[in-house]
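hiii so um. not sure if this is the right channel but i have a protein structure encoded as tokens and i wanna go backwards to a sequence. like what aa goes where. can anyone help
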């Protein structure tokens, strides 16, 4: 999730775990600072100056339970002199839970989280967008009330409400998935290999759908408020463009995108498009995916450069989502 949400969650966890005799300023500082630590991996990744390495490192070791076990002990040892009013073990548990809830929340988003490192699998339920005000704002309100009134009850309510929203997201996701599969089977006689359903920006009402078949992908979206049949847009994988290229970076891209990609061509050559995050533009003569990578041939294989996005494209996408939700 975004940094603000993680900070709010971290403060909430610190408040319910620490004794009431710990001042609110120290509670807020501990929750906010510790909750941001796992995401510092994005700055570590930038030293490699490689977009693929940045993606692979983010939410890897720094978001794993095993790492938290040792990091919590180290942090607790460093800050214990500022928390003399509580036992070391309670401080350790508080720090550990702040870190753990950070990663558990990330698991609900689209980006994978390597929770059980060194096991290589990254888990992603894909049931909440990485920024969702419907999760963050209620939690923030109750945490502020809890700190202001010196009442853990309000903070617990905030944690319960936000957790129920996560559960609601899973239910809504499953509902959309069932409808999408039914609509697809009624329109196409193709074998479905995989169906992915994920929310659009900051809501759990409008969902993107990716249906994978043997040769390509059918993309669509669906609102919880509509009943008409879905219209699907087909994108061939175009595997023939790269099937004879035994290149390490291309294989890394395949793994990163969970094999949900399509290969296209532009004036510079081959483009590797990540389908997981949908389209920025979807006009007849101008189709642009949210994440695309230019494959640049070199003597040592292909160099990968992310194709830049303009802010206007993002703003227009948000307008389209708003219109799609409320105008159907």
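sure thing!! here u go:
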């Amino acid at each position: 999730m975004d940094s603000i949400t993680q900070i709010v969650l971290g403060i909430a966890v610190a408040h319910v775990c620490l004794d009431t005799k710990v001042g609110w300023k120290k509670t807020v500082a501990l929750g906010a600072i510790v909750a941001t630590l796992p995401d510092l991996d994005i700055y570590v990744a930038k030293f490699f100056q490689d977009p693929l390495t940045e993606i692979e490192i983010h939410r890897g070791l720094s978001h794993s339970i095993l790492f938290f076990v040792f990091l919590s002990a180290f942090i607790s040892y460093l800050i214990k002199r500022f928390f003399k009013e509580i036992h070391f073990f309670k401080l350790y548990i508080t720090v550990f839970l702040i870190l753990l809830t950070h990663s558990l929340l990330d698991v609900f988003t689209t980006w994978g989280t390597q929770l059980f490192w060194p096991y290589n699998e990254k888990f992603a339920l894909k049931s909440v967008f990485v920024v969702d005000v419907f999760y963050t704002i209620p939690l923030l309100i109750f945490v502020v009330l809890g700190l202001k009134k010196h009442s853990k009850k309000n903070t617990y309510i905030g944690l319960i409400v936000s957790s129920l929203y996560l559960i609601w997201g899973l239910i809504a996701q499953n509902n959309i998935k069932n409808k999408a599969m039914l609509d697809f089977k009624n329109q196409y006689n193709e074998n479905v290999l995989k169906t992915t359903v994920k929310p659009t920006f900051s809501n759990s009402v409008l969902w993107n759908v990716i249906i994978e078949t043997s040769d390509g992908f059918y993309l669509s979206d669906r609102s919880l408020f509509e009943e008409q049949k879905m219209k699907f847009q087909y994108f061939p994988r175009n595997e023939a463009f790269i099937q004879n290229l035994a290149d390490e970076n291309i294989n890394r891209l395949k793994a990163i995108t969970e094999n949900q990609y399509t290969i296209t061509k532009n004036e510079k050559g081959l483009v590797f498009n990540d389908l997981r995050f949908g389209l920025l533009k979807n006009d007849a003569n101008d189709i642009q995916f949210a994440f695309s990578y230019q494959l640049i041939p070199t003597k040592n294989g292909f160099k990968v450069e992310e194709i830049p996005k303009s802010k206007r494209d993002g703003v227009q996408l948000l307008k389209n989502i708003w219109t799609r939700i409320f105008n159907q």
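oh and Strands lie at 194-199, 206-212, 216-223, 233-236, 261-266, 269-283, 286-298, 301-306.
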